[in-house]
């Protein structure tokens, strides 16, 4: 079956079982009103959707990574969008909170007169030097 036909079929099956649920907060009550067979159908449909969506995301992530190699330099996909690495691009695109601030954010902070604290570099015996 075609990827998007499969996704559409599963979404339609979910809508048929759940009806028009306006908000995610209403989902528990809508699911609680269903019989056991319908709940199993929903779990199966969501599982299939999740697998297919993850495969699409993995394919896009792999291509983004391949287009962001060091050999591509600043013309690489991630770098051309202002990210240091494909990991940073993907973290930004997915809203991953573990991403570090972009260099532009650091420059804006510096422009406001707020200087980040410098850490002392330690020598081989643990004494700081500059």
pLDDT averaged residue by residue: 80
Helix content: 55-70%
The tally of helices reads 6
Give the overall silhouette: elongated
Strand elements, count: 2
Largest sheet: 2 strands, antiparallel
- Residues in β-strands, percent: under 5%
Give the termini separation: 64 Å
Radius of gyration: 24 Å
Low-confidence stretches: 105-112
Question: Which class best fits the helix and strand makeup?
Answer: mainly alpha
Widest β-sheet, arrangement of strands: 1-2
> In sequence order, what are the helices and strands, one letter per element?
HHHHHHEE
Descriptive account of the structure:
The protein has six helices and two strands, in the order H-H-H-H-H-H-E-E. The chain has 130 residues and is mainly alpha-helical. The chain has a domain at 3-70. A hairpin with a 5-residue loop joins strand 1 and strand 2 (128-129). The model is unreliable at 105-112 (pLDDT under 50).
Write the layout of secondary structure elements.
Layout: H1 3-18, H2 27-32, H3 36-66, H4 77-80, H5 86-94, H6 103-111, E1 121-122, E2 128-129
Antiparallel strand pairs: 1-2
Main features:
two-stranded antiparallel sheet; 2 strands
In short:
With 130 residues, the chain is mostly helical. It contains six helices and two strands; from the N terminus they run ααααααββ.
């Amino acid at each position: 079956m075609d990827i998007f036909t499969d996704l559409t079929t599963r979404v339609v099956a979910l809508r048929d079982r759940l009806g028009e649920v306006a908000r995610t907060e209403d989902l528990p009550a809508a699911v609680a009103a269903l019989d056991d067979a319908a709940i199993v159908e929903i779990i199966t449909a969501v599982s299939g959707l999740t697998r297919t969506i993850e495969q699409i995301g993995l394919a896009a992530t792999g291509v983004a990574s391949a287009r962001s190699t060091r050999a591509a330099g600043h013309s690489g996909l991630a770098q051309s969008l202002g990210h240091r690495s494909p990991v940073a691009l993907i973290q930004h695109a997915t809203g991953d909170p573990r991403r570090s601030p972009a260099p532009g954010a650091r420059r804006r902070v510096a422009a406001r007169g707020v200087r980040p604290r410098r850490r002392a570099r330690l020598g081989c015996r643990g004494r700081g030097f500059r």
